[in-house]
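Board notes, transcribed. Complex of a protein with guanosine-5'-monophosphate.
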Amino acid sequence: MKPLYDGKAKTLFPGPDPNTVIVFFKDTVTAGDGVKRDAIPGKGALAAQISCKLFELLHNAVPSHYIKQRDERSFLAKRVQIIPLEVVVRNVAAGSIVKRLGLTRGQVFDPPLLELFYKSDALHDPLICEAHALALRLATPHELSQIKDYALQANAILKEYFLGVGLKLIDMKFEFGKTPDGEILLADEISPDTMRLWDARTNESLDKDVFREDKGDLLTVYREVARRMGIL
Ligand code: 5GP
């Protein structure tokens, strides 16, 4: 089947009807704007299954593109046009914000901090403020307000869920899309590729930082997340 879009970690194929797509998870893992990359057999299946379970968990609270799991490496989703914004919600300081603002890794944000990045490979996804998002017409004021509400709501639900299985949700990146009739839906994936998860007791990373920072075996930590979520 000819893909509609071939990304770094996922491929989108046409779904059974024109309003749907199949989101297929690849075994590729990339970091640093795609400079560091590897293929880890089994990673796609784990990210897909974790993502499906988390979309199902959010189902009643946050409208999303997720329809149903198809097989162990793919799910069926509503077709949307992706809004070129990366919406990052941070509960604890880690990653880029630590360098950018000279913070201490592990510092808690209460309330959670929401940041917007402009999704542009050519510009390396720069941090932008709401005024930029509006000036660039990435979203209308109403859409932006919905996007922020949905991201904070999803973060609150996921944070509580993960704590229940011994994991701290440090931060995560959300993407949103728009249906042909203008509805805003949570889109993309929700997996340890797009979030930071630390063991609640030891603060050990159980996410893509293991690959980014060469801290161990990615498959082992993704399996551990899946196991705690009752998937394996
Ligand atoms: P940071 O800004 O600290 O690099 O990332 C914040 C959070 O968003 C992390 O959980 C990180 O995994 C996620 N994130 C930010 N940008 C990207 C991206 O381009 N791809 C992926 N997979 N995750 C991202």
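Residues 86, 88, 95-97, 125, 171-173, 193-196, 208 surround guanosine-5'-monophosphate (CB under 6 Å). The radius of gyration is 17 Å.
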